[in-house]
Design brief:
Distance between the termini of chain B: 42 Å
Chains: A mainly alpha (278), B alpha+beta (507), C mainly alpha (305)
CATH class of the largest domain in chain C: Mainly Alpha
CATH architecture of the largest domain in chain C: Orthogonal Bundle
Strand content of chain B: 15-25%
Number of strands of chain B: 19
CATH architecture of the largest domain in chain B: Roll
Strand content of chain C: under 5%
Number of helices of chain B: 16
CATH superfamily of the largest domain in chain C: MetI-like
Radius of gyration of chain C: 23 Å
Number of domains of chain C: 2
Oligomer: heterotrimer
CATH superfamily of the largest domain in chain B: Dipeptide-binding Protein, Domain 3
CATH topology of the largest domain in chain C: MetI-like fold
Largest sheet of chain B: 11 strands, mixed
Chain lengths: 278, 507, 305
Amino acid sequence: MKKILKSPVGMVGLFLTSLALICAIFAPVLSPHPPQQQNITQRLVPPAWHPDGTSEHILGTDYMGRDVLSRIIYGSRTSITVGITAVILAGAIGLALGLLSGYKGGVWDSVIMRFVDAFMAIPSILLIMLLVGVLRPGVVSIIIILGVTRWITYARVVRAEVLQVREMDYVTAIVSLGQKPWKILLKHIFPNISASFMVVATLNVANVIIAESSLSFLGIGVPHHVITWGSMLAIGREYISVAWWIATFPGVAITLTVLGIIFLGDFLRDTFDPRLRG
Amino acid sequence: MKNCRVGLVSFLMVLLLLFSSGLAEAQKLTIGVPVDMETLDIHDHQSMVGEAVAVNIYDYLYFRDKGGELQPALATDWELIDDYTWRFYLREGVKFHNGEEFNAQSVKVTLERVAQDSGLTNHTHYSTIEKVEIIDDYTVDIITNVPDPILINRISRTGSGMLPPEYFQEVGMEGFIQNPIGTGPYKFVEWQRDGYVRLEVFEDYWRGTPEISEVEFRVIPEASTRISELLTGGVDIALEIPPFEKPRIDSRDGKRTIDSPTIRVMLLYVRLMEGYPTEDLKIRMAIDLAIDRQLIIDEFLEGAGTPVRSRLLPGAFGFNERLYDVDVYNPTRAKHLLREAGYEDGGPTIEIMGPHDRHAVDREVLEAIGAMLEEVGFDVNLEILSWSAVTSRVADRDHSEVRWANLANTLWDGGLAVDYLRYERSDDVIGFDSPEYSELVLAAAQNMDLEEREKQYQKIAEWIAEERLMIHLFQLDTIYGVDESVIWEPRVDEMIWVYDISLDSED
Amino acid sequence: MQQYIARRLLQGLFVIIVVTLIIFLLVHLGGDPVRLMLPEEAPEEAKEALRIRLGLDQPLHYRYFLFLQGLMRGDLGDSFRYNEPAVKLVMERLPTTATLAFLSMVLSTLIAIPLGILAAIKRNTLLDLFASSGAVLGRAMPNFWLGIMLILFFAVFLGVLPVSGFDSPRHLILPVITLGTGMAATVTRLVRSTLLEVIGLDYIRTARAKGLSKRVVLFKHALRNTMIPVITVIGLQVPALVTGAVITESVFAIPGVGRLTVAAVSRLDMAVVQASVLVVSIAVVLVNIGIDIIYTIIDPRVRYD
């Protein structure tokens, strides 16, 4: 805790991440208007500080006359949920396969690693486009798609760490003492890989939030009634020349949150990675 | 000696002048289009852009003018021999780009291919043609297998662009689309898919040499990029300008926008079969009355649209004046209707499905309709999907009560607008199982008594409007962004007929 | 050396087979492949022909065999819309996308490596914060957003660069910046963290203890060892670059594989989508093998990896 107070990176990261989480949790309390409430005659009202703006809508209204601030606050819910669950999914698959591959070695390792190589070579967006015909558009589909195309990084990282840790003297010693493999994994290997795992995971949450936006740009993103920062940005871009605020503020929200998550990840890594200690 | 040098210099200067004025005369027009054409096979595509390009390479027997009136083109006159036989008198002395002569053989080869090959996309519009009989080099009889009152409409649209018979038979369609040849004002030069289509002037064009010598259609999918190209002079004309961008273009020096009515109508298909709330006429009426068309037109289309209750627009056969430019908006009555239909507190849940990537403000219009229906008491589920997702769900019969559509009437005829409702055509996609309707539509389709036929279509259109078998919304205008140097009046059918465009070179 | 190359090629072949297997299974287990490959309005004869070609009445492994056979001949079906072999369509576009991706890769590496080193040396200072934030900003901006912004600023507002297209080197500047920024950000962060890791290693500490100057240690020892993982990761970024290229091509109207695929999806021309996934993935595998081999030649130590 003391360490985070000393690190500017850590502080900024913690602050921004908590801010986003608070928005997500307390959305109904914080947002001044219902996020879906249209007012067609009040379209494209600029932010409050603009001469044509009103204090009713601090960040202005969008192309349907909806309050941009309220939508950003509500949007944090889906964006963060999609980001975190997709990463948990990817992490779980990657962790399992990475552990298996690194710990068992041999044929297991070869086969899993070839699958990793193959998935690594397939550009995720092309894969997603191939799946468009198969999957129903929806938040769950998006989470599955983004999760399943991202497990490889974890598998590689985990495997590499397991290989390294396995060779360490004390682990070899424990193995020869006859401890059960899963206990070794849990007690000795897992703590060692968690730092790098966290770094990859934090980076990935950021990536997923942005990837979701790109899917919306290509017209294969979340359904329209779901509010996410990414889709607000993607749809708002059409209005960029006449109403910059529709896309810019969700963009700022994405940037700050991603910045926060990545900084927090950096801080965690710099602080807890055993190899960086001292 | 000195004189000689002066002479030489002035001679060179004159040459230079001639050369540079020659350059200035070589006028090039670049047009930014949102989607690429699909193929150069005119019989096998159905895209508006494809025809907008192809119309410059090929000629039809008859050709519509700006307002949609049919005018002689490769045919100079026609007469009806009997209900099944149409005689066309062809224009003499017309040459194809490769020098081949246009004659009766060309008509036969062109039309029989599309009439006989059911694999071609355009086949359905030509399947009434039995065969083409050559009377002499410049006279043909088109024989139909049923009485077909609108044959003339068929031979004045895409799919009837005349092909050079000898060249075509020599190279086949495979070879032909590598280097297509027509009689049109422009010769095909190059097509880079998703990049551009380039055309150059055909000097021996029968109507006279066109003014613009080079044409490039550039594919620029992103609207904002297309407008940026227009503003920086990269393109002279940009298609499909989103209405809200109009002020930005108009306020630029040297740029302007043109609003042009089209033959496209935005409408809602409703499922009429049992098990859907829209089976009840009261519910359908409530939907119709709840939509404030004028507000949508004013707010989202910048006024570029006209409220309608039928797909038949001015100029189309069967046009019904009473169903054009009327807004039936009446939310109070809509609320009453819902109550009458048995929904005391809160109307039924209806799902509305539509795409967000067909035209500029589809998403906005759909969302506005959703909110308007909720206003009168409906519980609305909006499914705004990509166009491909919409098509595949319709194909799977996996769709909801209400489906949005945006359709052009390329045949300019009542038949095309109402035929789809027949149960034999749309089965459970619409579910309108009415033998009476099918009979009436089929009778009109083959009725050679045009006066009676017109009344039939007007009656069908009123039937549709009264019973809300489809809920029509509005005729759409399209907005072009153009450079000031472009002198052009757009066509209702959205064809980019470059022959009519000129550039003001003083600019 | 030759043995290594042979092994690497064999491995690559195996990866390619796995790639084809993944794509085959997705297409064939996700539903009716005919429904996926041909739009509803396709004539019945075309559907029947496709059914036979795909061997849909045959068991799955036989279908996979047919699929591989087709792939060998470069035959992955015809585009329903373009009426041409799907593979041919993709191959025509590949050079454009490859050029775009390659230039972006070069640009981002040139920016990212010095920036990453600086951030690592001045760890936890304002400079680090600045470089890291810059890197994050580069990542946090979706490609389409950055692209539109660059067009509005450099082409419309300043008027110094062309808006879109792919005709001359000047047309390439904005798309390459758009596509390269994300990767530059990734590489910057990677260089920073790897360098930090390497500096923490024993032999560097030993070198320092032996009295070598900080600069010598950094440039002679630490950097060299940093570059190994960095170059590997750059190779692994190729698919991510392709993903970015799909978006960038849409914004800048560049006729590459990405535009082809996006247009194909919107027309439900899935034969083209399948071909583009396969061709691009195989190309990526080959590029990675190429990088690995070149890399062994440059640095003999990796040979036994």
